[in-house]
Design goal:
Mean pLDDT: 90
Radius of gyration: 23 Å
Helix content: 25-40%
Number of domains: 3
Order of helices and strands: EHEEEHEHHHHHEHEHEEHHEEHHEEE
CATH superfamily of the largest domain: P-loop containing nucleotide triphosphate hydrolases
Number of strands: 14
CATH architecture of the largest domain: 3-Layer(aba) Sandwich
Number of helices: 13
Shape: flat
Distance between the termini: 31 Å
Strand content: 15-25%
Low-confidence stretches: 24-35
CATH topology of the largest domain: Rossmann fold
Structural class: alpha/beta
């Protein structure tokens, strides 16, 4: 799974990326600081199933704090996009191509209104972030449309002459975006484009492109810099102005400060929490104490978290509908090294016990006999649809 960070230059994408990954990236308040995409590992947060078994897990990847499991995901931070990106402005075509494999997008906006549409600093509050919400989605939709419409008449004639189904032909053409035959069929029905694809005009293609983009690149909006004066008023206005969008108030800089302090064991803090505990007050100077007080009062107390973890969790579990599944045995939760529940896998919605067997190893899938729900100790069939927090033992022929 790949989560893509998008937005205009200087909106805070790279700061968000660092807050989520603690990777060292260049951060500056001028356009196009990022040219080549940054790639790193972030984490989604779940209630660990180890508590159900009254044990402490030992993750092979990720980590667990107070029975909160952090499961790794891949993040990519692409260069900032500006109006006209789909037509190549600001090297937009190249930057959009970097997003091709992303399963879900996080649109980072500067909700304080302190940078214009090109990512250049302006007086705080003088720019309307509502413009960013509209322009970026338009650019990505037009990116899909440009690819779909290029040589459309020839493509449509060839499809008809070869007696191909349009669903299959379009899925093949857009396979690099994760488009499937079922997606095309469902999108055609929902958008109510003309029944005869040979009669589709540019408007039909635009409508269809937008629907396919929504299905393959769903988006959540991270309203960054929420701690700047005037940002909350903008945030409240955006929520009312765009009721069909999901906005999360964020302060990426606050998350970085908290995670860096936690890494140095100056405070006790876990991503997504609403508070922290100072462990080494003597290690803090007055400026650092004021900074932590500011974060607590203006971010954590005001919004319940810095928002970074909330955005990641919503993107993976709500927009994509993924579930977490643990491999385990009815009589043994440990691996050969004694690690308890060392693995946790993210599975797409609708995944079955057989899908999970193949995820673990092709031999398990090919030789599948049955699966066992470790929590209930009941046998489940190959068609059993996995749920969040399932612990499953796969039994296969040897």
């Amino acid at each position: 799974m790949l989560v893509g960070l998008v937005g205009k230059p200087s909106a805070g994408k790279s700061t968000f990326f660092r807050a989520a990954t603690l990777a060292e990236v260049e951060i500056a308040n001028y356009p196009f600081t990022t040219i080549k995409p940054n790639s790193g590992v972030g984490y989604v947060k779940i209630d660990c199933i180890d508590k159900f078994f009254n044990k402490q897990c030992n993750p092979r990847t990720g980590f667990c704090i107070s029975h909160k499991r952090f499961v790794p995901i891949q993040l990519i931070d692409v260069a900032g996009l500006v109006p006209g990106a789909h037509a190549g402005r600001g090297r937009g075509n190249q930057f959009l191509d970097d997003l091709r494999q992303a399963n879900v997008l996080i649109h980072v906006i500067d909700v304080s209104g302190s940078i214009n549409e090109n990512g250049e600093p302006v007086e705080t509050g003088s720019y309307d972030p509502a413009k960013d919400v509209c322009f970026l989605e338009f650019e990505i939709d037009m990116w899909y449309y440009d690819i779909l419409s290029k040589g459309w008449e020839k493509f449509a004639r060839t499809t008809m002459q070869e007696k191909q189904q349009i669903n299959k032909a379009l899925a093949k053409q857009l396979s690099g975006f994760g488009v499937t035959e079922d997606m095309v069929g469902s999108a055609v029905k929902k958008t109510k484009v003309k029944e005869d694809f040979m009669r589709w005009d540019q408007e039909d293609l635009k409508i269809l492109a937008t629907e396919l983009r929504k299905r393959t690149k769903p988006m959540i909006i991270a309203a960054n810099k929420i701690d700047i004066p005037g940002a909350k008023e903008n945030y409240d206005r955006l929520v009312k102005l765009f009721p069909d969008y999901k906005f999360v108030p964020c302060s990426a800089e606050s998350e970085i400060a908290l995670r860096e302090a936690a890494r140095k064991e100056i405070i006790s803090y876990a991503a997504g929490e609403k508070d922290f505990t100072i462990l080494k007050e003597d290690a803090l100077n007055e400026q650092q104490k004021k900074a932590l007080k500011f974060v607590k009062e203006n971010v954590l107390d005001a919004y319940g978290s810095t928002g970074i973890q909330d955005v990641l969790d919503y993107a993976v579990f709500k927009l994509l509908g993924y579930v977490t599944v643990f491999p385990g045995g009815v009589n043994k939760l440990e691996d050969q090294y004694g690690n308890v529940l060392p693995d946790c896998f993210l599975m797409p919605p609708g995944s079955t016990a057989l899908d999970f067997a193949f995820k673990l190893h092709s031999d398990f899938g090919n030789n599948f006999v049955k699966a066992i729900d470790v929590k209930t100790k009941k046998i489940i069939g190959r068609e059993y649809v996995l749920s969040m927090g399932d612990v499953v033992e796969i039994v296969s022929r040897k």
